[in-house]
Amino acid sequence: MQDSSAPPESLDYATLDTELRRAKASVGASEAHGIICGVLCVARSDETDWLAEIVPTDTEEVDCVDDLKRLLLELARDSRRLLETDGFDFYPLLPADEYPLRSRSEALSQWCSGFLFGLTLAGAGDLERLPVESREIVTDLANFTTIRGGAVDEEEEQAYAELVEYIRVGAMLIKQELNGWSSRAQAPHQLH
Length: 192
Known about the structure:
mainly alpha; disordered C terminus
């Protein structure tokens, strides 16, 4: 059985989180992945301006920063592919089930924050003007940014798994809706 929060990408949460800490980044692995996915959901070219939001520029560890950029670009490439396929293989990058529920809940909250930031960073603009379904999901994700996790019991674990599934499917739906929305919003008006 696949871990409920394990993405099928080649990069795992722990590896990316370690590299982000080594580079003294201000975000963790889940928030970084959320930013990347939010950017990817807005139909644009493969710009990498989001890297500056994740990778610190004031570090003396040049090799560390270069390694981190390479990992993030690989994660972005894999995430784009997974968001654009119909196989429903996309997963938010979250800690594995072995981590305490509180840590996983906080990472889920950070992923949602990063995703919302990524949407805005990529030019989604006024989130209130998004297509109806996307707007509802964005509202829910904004509410999820306050999740902190509670008692560890079967009910809480089930609730966490359901949130991960909602976020996973919601991100794919937003990607699908915004591709059509962005092209319509940017299309020149034709006179007949």
